[in-house]
Amino acid sequence: MRRLFLFCSTLLLSTSLWAMHCPQDMAKIDEMLKTDPPADAEVLAEVKRLRAEGEQLHNAGNHSESMKVLDEALNLLQASE
Asked: Are 31 and 12 in contact (CB under 8 A)?
């Protein structure tokens, strides 16, 4: 019973940590777009689309998928530097 409680507690805490990480990634993307946007218009459009999708997923509570999408946007931004 103790193990089940610890497992559930850990699961709940890790979910909230995922939720907290999404806004940080969105802010990082916003800052990168503001200070050093990609020169390629297609890359810029894709990053903006992924950022918006990541925010929608975050707001819907799908944090793991949001993290994947936001990470993809960050990778595109870093690759375009």
From this structure: no
> pTM value?
0.75
Burial (0-12, 13-18, 19+ Cβ within 10 Å), 43: middle
Please list the helix, strand and coil fractions of the chain in percent, rounded to the nearest 5, in that order.
85, 0, 15
DSSP result, 61-76: T-HHHHHHHHHHHHHH
- The model's pLDDT over 33-55, given as tens digits with 9 standing for 90+, comes to 999 999 999 999 999 999 999 99
What's the CA gap between 35 and 52, in Å, rounded?
A: 19
For the chain, domain boundaries: 2-79
Tens of pLDDT, residue by residue over 56-73, are: 999 998 888 999 999 999
Integer Cα distance of 36 and 30 in angstroms: 10
